[in-house]
Each structure stands twice: as C-alpha cells, then as structure tokens.
Fold this protein.
Amino acid sequence: MSFWSAIILIALIVCATALFMQRAENRKDAARTDGGKRERELESERDAARSELADLRERVKVLERIATDPSRRTAEEIEKLRD
C-alpha cells in the first residue's frame, strides 16, 4: 500500500466515523423529542385513571351504604329522589 493510499483510507475512515457519530446524535435528539411527547401522554393517561378511580371509589361508598342501611330507610331515600 502506498503512502497516498493510506492517507485516503484514513480520511475515509475519519469521514465515516464523523457521519456515524452525527447520525447517532440525531437519533438521540429525536428520541428526546419523542420521549417528551410520550411522557406527556403517560401523564394524561395517569390523570384520567386517577379521576376514574376516584369516581369508582365514590360509587363503591354509595353501594356499601345502600347494602348496609336498613331497607326501609333506603326505600325512603329512593322515593325522595323520585320526587
């Protein structure tokens, strides 16, 4: 291998390495951008799930109260709600 062939080979390796590193950096930037979007989606899903959980807990409390109250009082409350 001649001296100039070695110089050209080294230059090609340096350029290929720089290109590879730039592509890797671009992928990291894209992942950060997408990660922020995904994080916001997960936060909104979590908030919706917490809200639904609070609603379900309230429903369970009402059902427990209906199940444990004497039937006469429950019937009277239902009749009040109908009026």
